[in-house]
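Q: Please design a sequence for this.
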């Protein structure tokens, strides 16, 4: 009697969706460390990442313990200067404004030496001239200049030893105008973005990130937005003919793809890559579920917090910028997730999406992480918080993966 073969249960294909924002950087690091501790035999087959998620996953995609320990040290001690610096155009604008301010002080002092009566008159004329420069055509500029020079000359004639002060006032006023116009021209024409992320590019290359990513078993797909298309741009560590670990050009292009995915519009410079201009991937979508179809059976989405809730408006311009961006992204994401659930209802073969989120107790600690200020210990706290979030969701993840209790490392 012939034996019967027992049918093998197909291996569960696992996908990860790792979204961006700097607030999630440390949380992602803690998540990866905790996952490798509790579920070391259930690593993802495909990771789709954007922005800060793409930066971190490119460093950790091998899931090698020694590499993870090294990346953790880097993230824990990360400084702002390792990510971005002020752009050259913005620095030049600052220098010109400082010079213009110094010139204005010298001009005011020279006006004061003419005596209070004449100082008030020439400064009032200078104020009227400034208004004329802003609100009228160039036809009125030269008459205003001549009037100021004439009044300063009269003041010098009426005040003993006033000629040097009058000359210094006129020269200072016109130099201030020149420097101010130059600073405005530099700001409008040369400042493509306020920050330059070249330090991050150097950090990723120095850490040998591209070579390790190319050799990794797990595929990493990085999403960027093509602002010219418009449309999505994908960069993969398994991309044919573009992932040679020994080819420096391939490594540099991979890093530029990472930078493109994290290039928040208006903050970081445009970079041309393969005839396209990639920008922050979440400009296109924060829920790139299409990439998992036919590749994964289950997708874990590490967003950590629930959809945005009503709250006070931010006071600082940078917080206002990012909160507005979060509101826009959150709305688009929720709409796409709802449509996807309708698609799954019609086609159950589509992968399930499991959001991994913090409990209310841990979620209350996330806004306290002042990641943008890079205060000592903040990123270390963020890493620990990410580990605790996975620990909280351990039973949920185990059920979704179909792992018996005894198989989980504790």
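A: Design:
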């Amino acid at each position: 009697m012939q034996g019967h073969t027992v049918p093998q249960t197909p291996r569960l294909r696992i996908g990860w969706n790792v979204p961006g924002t700097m607030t999630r950087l440390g949380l992602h690091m803690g998540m990866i460390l905790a996952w490798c501790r509790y579920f070391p035999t259930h690593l993802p087959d495909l990771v789709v990442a954007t922005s800060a998620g793409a930066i971190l996953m490119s460093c950790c995609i091998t899931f090698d313990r020694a590499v993870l320990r090294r990346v953790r040290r880097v993230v824990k001690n990360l400084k702002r200067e390792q990510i971005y610096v002020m752009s050259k155009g913005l620095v030049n604008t600052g220098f010109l404004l400082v010079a213009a301010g110094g010139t204005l002080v010298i001009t005011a002092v020279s006006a004061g030496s003419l005596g209070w009566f004449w100082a008030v008159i020439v400064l009032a004329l200078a104020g009227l001239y400034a208004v004329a420069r802003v609100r009228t055509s160039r036809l009125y500029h030269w008459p205003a200049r001549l009037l100021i020079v004439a009044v300063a000359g009269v003041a010098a004639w009426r005040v003993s030893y006033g000629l040097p002060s009058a000359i210094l006032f006129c020269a200072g006023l016109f130099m201030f105008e020149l420097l101010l116009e130059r600073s405005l021209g530099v700001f409008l024409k040369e400042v493509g973005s306020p920050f330059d992320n070249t330090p991050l590019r150097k950090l990723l290359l120095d850490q040998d990130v591209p070579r390790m990513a190319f050799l990794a078993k797990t595929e990493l797909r990085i999403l960027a937005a093509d602002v010219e298309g418009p449309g999505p741009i994908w960069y993969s560590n398994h991309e044919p003919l573009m992932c040679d670990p020994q080819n420096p050009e391939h490594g540099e292009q991979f890093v530029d793809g990472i930078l493109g995915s994290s290039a928040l519009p208006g903050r970081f410079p445009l970079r041309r890559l393969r005839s396209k201009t990639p920008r922050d991937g979440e400009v296109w979508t924060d829920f790139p579920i299409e990439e998992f179809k036919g590749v994964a059976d289950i997708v874990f989405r590490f967003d950590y917090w629930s959809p945005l809730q009503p709250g006070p408006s931010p006071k600082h311009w940078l917080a206002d910028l990012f909160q507005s961006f979060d509101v826009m992204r959150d709305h688009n994401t929720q709409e796409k997730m709802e449509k996807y659930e309708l698609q799954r209802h019609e086609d159950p073969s589509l992968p399930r999406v499991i959001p991994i989120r913090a409990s209310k107790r841990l979620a209350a600690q996330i806004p306290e992480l002042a990641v943008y200020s890079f205060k000592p210990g903040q990123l270390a706290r963020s890493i620990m918080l990410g580990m605790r979030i996975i620990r909280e969701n351990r039973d949920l993840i185990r059920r979704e993966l179909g792992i018996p209790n005894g198989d989980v490392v504790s």
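Q: Thanks. Anything notable?
A: The longest strand covers residues 219-226. The chain has a mean pLDDT of 81.
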